[in-house]
Design a protein that fits this description.
By secondary structure, the protein is of the alpha+beta class. 32% of the residues lie in helices and 30% in strands. The chain is built from 13 helices and 39 strands. The strands form twelve sheets. Strands 4-5-1-7 form a four-stranded antiparallel β-sheet. The radius of gyration is 46 Å and the shape is elongated.
Length: 844
């Protein structure tokens, strides 16, 4: 029977299609076995497709949160370690600040004692202090060892030879004190007496050992450790570096920051040449001392020698000198009081000379209140910088007002980096800023060297300089403090029983007071009887026995006493001398003018929280800056308002200085009452964002985010957490400031207690703050752990739900795969057999 070729070929084609289907099944089953899922094609799942898509999306989202948490957890663990270390430093230093109160630093002190008989000429008293020789040769007129001690003290205090000591006269002894804590120097003393003269001696004894604070090194170490911790790196990233955390260490060397209580440097500004029509006149103050018997002092003013012979009290010498200087041409005299007087040039720009000479061991001193300023075609101001270099964050500023271009004051500032090799470098920075300022100044700045900046212009201008915001107080008008008159009344005798003395006061009115001599009375006992009577009357005069004589003192300084002292009955047989009265201290009335103090405010403005304090005679007002003050005038105006609003009234009234001066002028409320004026500026213990902290490397306003910003992380839907911390955290600011105050305190025994009190308060507040930061970080760590657990639990549940939809039974798939492989193997065999037939054989 013949073969139907078509039907046979159709069967072949059917076999080929079956073969292809088996291959597809093989591929599908293999993929299922490998993946454990039915298919990667979502259309395979029909109505379960959307459910599967949702489950997969949620798994991916939560896995992303977990990855972010894992990355952030490295920082959180590092913060925990750093906070623990900072807390340890804080607690340790707080204990250290408390413990050494009983053992503060001390300055070395030596007491120099003199002994023997005075009166020789040519005796030599020698002191060697810190390797520097000081000596005094007697001239025979010394009335006491106090004068010799005073001469040596003046030499030591005025020395430029590097002796690290100051000297003070205490009675007839000389006390030498070190300028720094600790043992600094040796002191030796010796005398060389003239042949045949009295035997004199000078002895030195260590009256107080110098001692360095026991916590100096501890404070230094704490600053170093704090520096390292705030500059901690994790994976090449600064933990406290803000958003720019991988580029620059955020904190500078804390040991090189300025003293927080007062600047280490100074900046003084003085006009050295003034324009025609200027008003600056030369002023000097003469301070007088006791002029002893046989002593002579010559005050030479403009070549005119004025000679004064002792004995004279400081008050008598001041009055005599003032009376002699007053008539001289070209000068005038003011402010005559019990201790000196003032000489002022009559013409601005015209100098006078004043020199003191003589044999007084402690001569009158001359202090330049205002140097002469010559007239010139240009006004020239000199800004002189002084102090150490190498500090970081010390702000030097010059404020200039030069109308019409700058009718309001303009402050040019330079903040040190600590890399400046000398003060001239700082001057160069200021010169460059002044020269390029727009609109330009009329003044021309020049670096004169030695830390001096010259400002020159052909038109009038004002300038003042400062380091930080240091204010300066200058007494521009003195007041004469009243002095109480003191007289002594002597009763010379010879005394007879029945002698009567009578004292009658006409100002103040009192008496008559009569004393009758008893047979046993002497001068002192007669004086004592008057003391009882006068004091019991309460007339405004206080009586006492002084040097065996009757001493009477007015109870109202500035109000003179007038009286008569008479022998009203002279009993027989002796002729008794009448009482003699002498004025020991002259009455000096108050005034005639009130004291005026001018407060010069200087430095950069714009800071928020700076506290400006003005204290006068124990009363204090404070103004806290808002940061919106345009210049120092605004601060002066605010202080003026506060002072004048005080109830009860402030000891002085206030007015702001001329516009652009940055000054506050205080006028005493009572003529004859001296003003003790102190002004200081205290920076806040912590500043807020975006104000740069002193120790942060980022100081520009535009850099605030680099220093302050804390990074956030999204760890779950609608849950964002700030997990990084800034080096500017308030707790860190207070701790570093506490350490800096302690660093200052251990070098300053005079204010040690005050500064350590501040350091303890700051450290206490800081410790609470650091613990709060640690708590926040612990909460973040716990939140990360809890959130990770929640995510993992949800992911596991979603994976289970996904498996129910798309997972396969691997045993079932394996069996099917084996069956398909067998079918495919048989098909391959059939296909191979057919492929070997010829066409004729195939058709057959």
């Amino acid at each position: 029977m013949p073969v139907n070729g078509y039907s046979t070929y159709a069967a072949y084609l059917s076999n080929v299609n079956g073969f292809q289907r088996l291959q597809t099944s093989l591929a599908t089953l293999t993929q299922q076995l490998n993946s454990g899922k039915k298919s990667s094609d979502l259309t395979t799942y029909g109505v379960e497709t959307q459910r599967l898509v949702d489950l997969r999306a949620e798994i991916a989202r939560r896995q992303g949160y977990m990855d972010a948490i894992k990355s952030a957890s490295t920082d959180v663990k590092a913060y925990d370690r750093v906070f623990t270390s900072i807390e340890d430093i804080n607690a340790t230093m707080l204990q250290a600040f408390t413990a050494p109160n009983t053992d503060p630093p001390t300055k070395q002190q030596h007491t120099i004692a003199f002994s023997g008989d005075l009166g020789d000429t040519g005796d030599v008293y020698k002191l060697v202090v810190d390797g520097v020789l000081f000596s005094y040769v007697t001239n025979g007129t010394e009335g006491s060892y106090e004068e010799i001690a005073g001469n040596l003290a003046a030499q030591i205090n005025n020395s430029t030879s590097g002796a690290r000591a100051t000297a003070q006269v205490v009675g007839e002894r000389l006390v030498i004190t070190g300028t720094e804590p600790g043992p600094l120097f040796n002191v030796s003393a010796m005398t060389t007496n003239i042949l045949g003269g009295a035997e004199n001696a000078i002895d030195s004894s260590l009256s107080r050992a110098g001692k360095v604070s026991s916590i100096v090194q501890q404070v230094e170490t704490a600053l170093i450790e704090m520096n390292a911790l705030l500059n901690e790196q994790v994976n090449d990233r600064y933990l406290f570096g803000g958003i720019n955390a991988n580029e620059r260490a955020p904190v500078v060397d804390l040991r090189r920051l300025p003293d927080p209580s007062s600047p280490d440097n100074t900046a003084a500004s003085n006009t050295t040449f003034q324009l025609a029509g200027g008003t600056i006149r030369q002023v000097v103050r003469i301070t007088t001392d006791q002029l002893g018997t046989g002593q002579t002092e010559t005050l030479t003013v403009n070549g005119n020698p004025l000679v004064f012979n002792g004995p004279m009290s400081p008050q008598e010498l001041a009055a005599a000198m003032a009376a002699a200087v007053g008539p001289l041409a070209g000068v005038s005299v003011q402010d005559i009081d019990a201790h000196g007087f003032t000489i002022t040039a009559d013409t601005a720009g015209t100098a006078f000379t004043a020199v003191v000479s003589g044999n007084d061991p402690t001569p009158s001193t001359i202090e330049t209140v205002q140097a002469n300023v010559p007239i010139s075609a240009d006004q020239v101001d000199i800004v002189a910088l002084d102090g150490p270099v190498g500090l970081i964050g010390e702000v030097f500023s010059v404020t200039i007002t030069d109308p019409p271009a700058h009718s309001a004051p303009v402050t040019i500032s330079y903040r040190t980096t600590g890399d400046e090799p000398d003060l001239n470098t700082i001057v160069d920075k200021l010169v460059a800023k002044i020269a390029t300022y727009q609109p330009p100044f009329a003044v021309t700045p020049t670096n004169l060297g030695d830390g001096r900046l010259e400002l020159r212009a052909s038109t009038a201008f004002t300038s003042h300089a400062a380091v930080q915001n240091t204010p300066v107080v200058e007494t521009t008008q003195r007041t004469v403090v009243p002095v109480a008159q003191r007289d002594e009344i002597g009763f010379a005798g010879p005394f007879d029983a029945g002698d009567q003395y009578t004292i009658t006061f006409t100002a103040p009115v009192g008496g008559p007071f009569t004393v009758t001599n008893a047979a046993t009375d002497d001068e002192a006992s007669i004086a004592a009887k008057f003391v009882s009577a006068i004091n019991a009357a309460g007339i405004g005069v206080t009586a006492s026995v002084r040097n065996g004589r009757l001493s009477i003192v007015s109870d109202t300084p500035g109000t003179a006493m007038t009286y008569t002292a008479l022998l009203t009955t002279d009993a027989a047989p002796n002729t008794t001398a009448a009482p003699t009265a002498s004025t020991v201290v002259q009455n000096i009335p108050a005034g005639p003018l009130p004291q005026i103090d001018t407060v010069q405010l200087s430095g950069p403005v714009g800071r928020k929280g700076d506290v400006y304090e003005v204290s006068v005679n124990g009363r204090t007002v404070r103004y806290t800056t808002t940061g919106a003050e345009a210049d120092m005038d605004a601060i002066a105006i605010s202080l003026t308002a506060l002072i004048n609003a005080q109830v009860p009234p402030f000891p002085a009234s206030a007015v702001p200085g001329t516009p652009g001066s940055g000054q506050l002028v205080l006028t005493g409320g009572t003529i004859g009452v001296a003003l003790e004026t102190e002004v200081r500026v205290q920076q806040p213990p912590a500043v807020p964002d975006p104000t740069p902290t002193l120790y942060n490397v980022h100081q520009e306003a535009t850099d605030s985010t680099l220093a302050w910003q804390r990074a956030s992380i999204v760890i779950a839907d609608k849950l964002s957490v700030k997990y990084t911390f800034s080096a500017n955290e308030v707790a860190f600011q207070k701790l570093t400031l506490a350490l800096r105050y302690a660093q200052s305190a251990v070098q300053d025994p005079d204010t040690y207690a005050e500064k350590m009190t501040i350091a303890k308060q700051l450290a206490t507040e800081s410790l609470a703050g650091v613990r709060a930061l640690q708590s926040d970080n612990t909460v973040n760590d716990a939140l990360f752990s809890a959130t990770t657990l929640s995510h993992q639990t949800t992911i596991n549940a979603n994976v289970s739900d996904s498996d129910k939809i798309e997972a396969v039974d691997p045993n079932e798939v394996a069996a099917k795969l084996q069956a398909v492989e067998l079918q495919l193997q048989a098909s391959f065999g059939a296909y191979a057999q057919v492929s070997r037939l010829s066409l004729i054989n195939f058709i057959a």
